[in-house]
Specification:
This protein is mainly alpha-helical and 358 residues long. It is built from 16 helices and no strands.
């Protein structure tokens, strides 16, 4: 019994002492356990959220890479299927003209090259006019025995007459065109021979070529042939026939034909000598603007040969003759040989008079 009371008292004293003594509650105490658990749970959620963000970012990057690869593959396929268009070397804007250019460069056909030369000469089908390229293709067509192309090549070279070398080239193409029986080529080749343009002067050969041009019915060739007859070339029996053609030309206003008729009347070649008719034709040539007929008309007016004397009109015709540099006319007018004045002198504007101040 005593023993039981002893244990009871001891435990009660111990409990009272424990209750009276101050003490701290540890972090692992059951009172604070729920707060710790909630903090750990929030930390875990944050970690999971960060991990999910990282994984989603990685997935997005991978997906973007895949998409970019697919887009690059598609783009490469498109570029492979549709190669880049190269800039065409054709100067023309139409497909037909470009085809003709390609055909000419491959086969150098006469008709096709002739067309291409015309395109460059006239600036057709969107191309700029280029005379150098025009001559190139005309020459190619001329090699293919296209007679009109030879004539066109000669004309282009003649248009570039500032360079003396171009004269020889133009004469060469006129010669080739004449050999191919192109009438206008023969006419130009004869003129070149008679004047010595790009070739040695040869009037006999010029006469023969002009006769060919007249036979081929070139414009004005027969009139030019008549002048050769009037100068004594060829069969003089044909001079009367030539003068008939010159009469037609003179009536149409060809002053050179009128001059040849005047000379034939004055010299008695082809016609009976008739000074009155000679004066009438010399006067007509001068009035038509061909001033080589002005000096003989002035002489006849001053002397009264074939017409009445008229010193005033004779002086006016002498002035016209002096204008083109006929020294005899200038001597009769001025007593010396001054340089002829310009035909179209520049207009001088009068200087304004200074205004008088009041």
């Amino acid at each position: 019994m005593f023993q039981q009371w002893k244990t009871f008292l001891f435990t009660s004293a111990f409990l009272c002492a424990w209750a009276l003594t101050p003490h701290t509650v540890s972090a692992d105490s059951p009172a604070k356990a729920p707060a710790k658990r909630s903090a750990d749970a929030s930390k875990g959620k944050e970690k999971k959220a960060k991990e999910t963000k990282k994984t989603t970012a990685k997935k997005a990057k991978k997906a973007a890479k895949k998409v970019s690869k697919k887009a690059a593959q598609k783009a490469s396929k498109k570029t492979a299927a549709k190669p880049k268009k190269k800039k065409s070397s054709c100067p023309f804007k139409t497909k037909a003209a470009c085809k003709e250019l390609a055909l000419c460069l491959k086969k150098s056909g006469d008709k096709v090259c002739m067309k291409v030369g015309e395109y460059f000469r006239d600036g057709q089908h969107g191309a700029k006019a280029n005379q150098g390229q025009a001559v190139r293709f005309f020459a190619m067509a001329c090699k293919g025995k296209h007679k009109e192309a030879c004539f066109n090549a000669g004309l282009v070279h003649l248009g570039q007459s500032i360079n003396p070398k171009e004269h020889a080239k133009s004469t060469y193409y006129f010669k080739v065109g004449c050999e191919l029986k192109h009438p206008m080529s023969c006419l130009h080749f004869s003129d070149a021979l008679s004047q010595g343009i790009g070739v040695k002067k040869d009037n006999k050969k010029a006469f023969a070529v002009m006769k060919k041009a007249c036979d081929l019915k070139a414009a004005h060739a027969c009139n030019s042939l008549a002048r050769f007859y009037a100068k004594g070339f060829g069969d003089q029996k044909k001079l009367t026939q030539a003068l008939k053609t010159m009469q037609v030309g003179c009536k149409k206003g060809d002053a050179e034909n009128c001059l040849q008729i005047a000379n034939s009347y004055f010299n008695g070649k082809g016609y009976k000598k008739d000074i009155k008719k000679a004066f009438a034709y010399y006067k007509k040539t001068c009035d038509l603007g061909f001033r080589e007929g002005c000096y003989p008309a002035a002489k006849m007016l001053s002397s009264g040969q074939g017409t009445k004397k008229d010193p005033k009109q004779a002086k006016s015709y002498l002035k016209k003759a002096c204008m083109i540099g006929i020294t005899k006319a200038c001597i009769q007018l001025h007593g010396n040989t001054p340089p002829p004045p310009p035909r179209n002198p520049p207009k001088t504007t009068p200087k304004p008079k200074p205004s008088k101040r009041k």
